[in-house]
């Protein structure tokens, strides 16, 4: 054991040159509300992709399952980044399952037996709704003067549009 003592900084210490938050509380709250809407929809989209992955059946399931898995992993990664941004702004991320179910803008995923093609078509619709929600968030974050949140959502939007396009291409090949 060392006799040295560590100097612990008080967590409430705010250095004048480096303000804790550059945005005022009202703007941060509005940004967190919008980011939470995107977060909930992104988590819902990821869970939908995982559901499609596990329940894909039929001759096209072999080449669709990796796409559903990739969609799940990419959306989960972006949901983590969005949640992290909410926390960095001083908000509370709504990533708990009951909150996701209650607050998602996406319609409930059909739980009856779907073919692989029907799963893919459902994912195209869901990814489309998700990109719309992301675009609204980009506009609002830009309007409120938060380029970091705008960048986080732009990155997620780029990825989600790519996944939607790939899924649409797979659906077109099957039909």
Mind explaining what this structure looks like?
- This protein is 70% helix and 0% strand.
- It has 175 residues and is mainly alpha-helical.
Annotation keywords:
175 residues, mainly alpha, 5 helices, elongated
Unreliable stretches covering 5 or more consecutive residues: 5-19
Tell me the span between the first and last alpha carbons: 70 Å
Mean pLDDT: 86
N to C succession of SSEs: HHHHH
Sheet with the most strands, sense and barrel status: none
- Counting helices, strands and paired strands, the structural category is mainly alpha
| Estimated helix fraction | 55-70%
Number of strands: 0
Gyration radius from CA atoms, angstroms:
20 Å
Shape: elongated
Range of strand content:
under 5%
Total count of helical runs of at least 4 residues: 5
